[in-house]
Structures are given as structure tokens and as C-alpha cells.
Amino acid sequence: MNRTRIPIALQQAVMRCLRAKLQLARQHFAIEFPEPKIVYQQRGTSAGTAWLQAWEIRLNPVLLLENQHTFIDEVVPHELAHLLVFRQFGQVSPHGREWRWMMGSVLQLPASRTHQFAVSSVQSKTFPYQCVCQQHQLTVRRHNRVLRGESEYRCRRCGEKLQFLANENS
Ligand SMILES: [Zn+2]
Ligand SMILES: [Zn+2]
Description:
Elements: H1 8-29, E1 37-39, E2 48-51, E3 56-59, H2 61-89, H3 97-106, E4 126-130, E5 135-139, H4 140-147, E6 163-164
Parallel strand pairs: 1-3
Antiparallel strand pairs: 2-3, 4-5, 4-6
Helix pairs in contact: 1-2, 2-3
The protein binds zinc ion (ZN) (2 copies).
One zinc ion binds next to loops.
Binding site for Zn(2+): 78, 82
GO biological process, one term: response to stress
GO molecular function, one term: zinc ion binding
């Protein structure tokens, strides 16, 4: 998979948002929290994740590029709040009382647990196959190998060859 390149201007916008929100937290707690590391390596359909021990925020580069400032305004503070909650309260429920308070009272944002981005571009597509005993989902890569006649796949349970269910779209 190719690494998605994030334009410098967008990376700067991420850092501006991060620093502005971090500043609010520093003022509120009178603590010089270190700046979290931002990594553009989140895979799959998650917009971002907070790595509490590593003090790191991983952002999904594809969703960032597609949603730009909506993504930044929503995901960066959300993940930062997870780090701050961990630093101040330890291991508590991820979107519980402490997190909601951190979002609302400290970072001055509405606390919504989930993001509403369209994820179709990062959803991995699979293709339905059938053996004798069950249905299977093959990845695009395997499906293409079957179509090109390069590979065939067998069910590990019944040993039968998998057949593509052509008219079932999933
Ligand atoms: Zn969260
Ligand atoms: Zn089977």
C-alpha cells in the first residue's frame, strides 16, 4: 500500500489545532503538558487513535485528505482529550465522564464520541464465496487472482473449492 502524502499546509493546520487545544489544557491545569507526537499512519476506517503511553496521536491520512478541516477540528481535539484524560485521571472509561468533561470544560468543544465521515474509500472491499459448508469473504487481491486463474482457494473445514457468488454484492 502506498503511503498517503499529507500536504505541508494540512500538517500545519493539524499542528495549529493541536497547539491551540493543548494551550487551553496547559492554562486550565497549569501544567506544561508535552506536545503529543502526530503520526499519519492510522489504517482502516478509524479516523484516529490516541496512544496513551506513547503520548502519540495517529491520524488516518485518507480521511484527513478527504475531510480536511472538518476532520482536523473534530478528530485532533477528540484524541488529544484521550491523552489528557489518561495523564490526569489514569485508565478510565474511554468516553466517560472525565473525557466528556475534558472536551466540554477544558477544550471547549461538544463531546461527540464518534465521527461521521464517509468511510467508503477506506473500507476494504470483500467478495462473497461459497463452499459446501459456509460462506467466505475474499479480499480484492485474492478475488482478482481467482478471476485471472492464478489461484484457487479451498475451505479449511470441508476442503471444497470456493465458488464466487457473482450476483451477491456486498
Ligand atoms: Zn475516542
Ligand atoms: Zn466449507
